[in-house]
Amino acid sequence: MAENSVTNNIIEIDKAELLENTMRMKNKGLRLSQACAAYADGKFELSYSFSDDETYEYTTLRFIVGLCEPVASISEFYPYASFYENEMKELFGVNIEMIRFDYHDKLYRIKKETPLLPEEGRVLKKQEEREAGETNV
Amino acid sequence: MSKKSVIPFGPQHPVLPEPVHLDLVIEDEKVIQAIPNIGFVHRGLESLTETKDFNKLIWVVERTCGICSFGHGMGYAEAVEHVMNVDVTPRAKYLRSIWFEMSRVHSHLLWLGLMADAMGFESLFYQTWRIREKILDLMEAATGGRVIFSVNTIGGVLKDMGPDMIKAFLDGIAELYPQIHAIQKTFMDDYTVQTRMKGCGVLTREQAHALGCTGPTARASGIAKDIRECGYAAYSDLDFEPIVSKDGDCYARCDVRIKEIFQSFDLIRQAIGKLPEGELAAHVKGNPSGEYFMRVEQPRGEAIYYIKGSGKKFLDRMRIRTPTFANLAGLCEMLKNAELADVPMMIVTIDPCISCTER
Amino acid sequence: MARIMVFLPVVMKNLFSRPVTKRYPAEPIVYQERSRGHIEIEIEKCISCSICQLMCPSDAITVDKSDKTWAINRFDCVQCGSCTLKCPKKCLHLVPGYQMPEQEKKTEVCTHPADIQQTT
To answer: A8-136 — its CATH code?
Structure first.
């Protein structure tokens, strides 16, 4: 094992606790290091990582959302989070709302929609959207 | 009340090393706002985890970018080694550090040349790249490639350095010292260069922290942070301090990067002095199962490699977050209230590596 | 401290020294010993096990066991060297000399000499 003596841990939270936890991180003076999405078993796994610049501690908040569930944006606390959230929205199709600088899928301008979402995910997402449309009507 | 207009900058521009698009909102030759737009070299490398297993993926990750190539290979290899609990052999750790520092010197020399070119000082650009050729020759003798080294593997390295090659490295470095000093004098003391760089693109310490800048961009604004202090590879045995500057303008960033070249030479000398004997690579069995975030100090800043595996040969997710993605917000802030003629220089001063950013 | 004409000594030295560039193609290239250029095979030792085909990250190698041929698309090869590491007979070598530019991509096929003798 490499001599990485700093803590590098992943904390599982609930989707509703995201904004509160982000506010706590901002209060402690941590910097948002990265935000990424991963597709696993019909759901999205989102990870928001925060880095402490004094002690090099690395904390990651992890939560699971459904393919069409809306997620609140943290760009009010960290304005540069808009880049990461636009990327997640465009490449995976995560439904993030109220992004401060919303590019409306024109950050990368890729011809194929949500290219990094695997085929089964795309089929599932269309199905869920159709069901959501039917219940709304 | 003067009229505002929007000027599109890039993706084709003589000064840009890689394609990035900026919409500049200007009023009377002063930039008010800059909106970046990327995606011109997007190759979708992260989706290759579906077709290439974790052993083959290192060759793909290495070819994400030409300048930062060794850093990508090493970061990916270290992340997978953490997940699979592989003990890298000590000799491999030291060799990786030596080659990474050579790669950093190469990257900073390349950037210095581009900075001189952005200012219009072409002769200085040529002289700086002449020095860079010596570094590339040394790396070709050691690893076989000039920019894509292809020596990293999961568990260690593939090639060794004998005593002759090590002596050639030390001699080459000693030969380059006076040449780089001469270049440093021109960058730091020349009147025209100072007029162009001093006071341009100032980022205060609070701004740099609030915008999430990393690497030399943040260190030049006073944030003394260097991920090498975490102690991956052989850096826990080597002695160094992060190089900081207080001013936060283009001159300070240039100063930080030149001093980092000398710091890298010092680190290479230390590592060669302590190079242990031993095997080159540990034997690796099985498939990765678990996840890990690996942080590496690339020449441009903090790069993050996220690996997620679930026991299969193909990884579930591989993500690279490159430092330029984090520094883009700093760039947009820097461009506010800048003169239109200074815009190309400010873009080059954050050391943009757009092909890494878009993978 | 700002001074003028700081670059002058470097310019003067460059003016009165020989050019750094080599006159290629008049002067031939001298490659370093470990330089990675292209793959060469000793086809007599090849046993058509296809391990090199499995290891290749860019799928440049095609091995046909029935015909005893080994084919490589030189333009797809990225010179990584994984095929040379895993070959059980060690008949693949990564030698200096990069692929010359050509007008179309083609595959180079090497046939096992035993096969040629059988057909004559």
So the answer is: 3.30.460.80
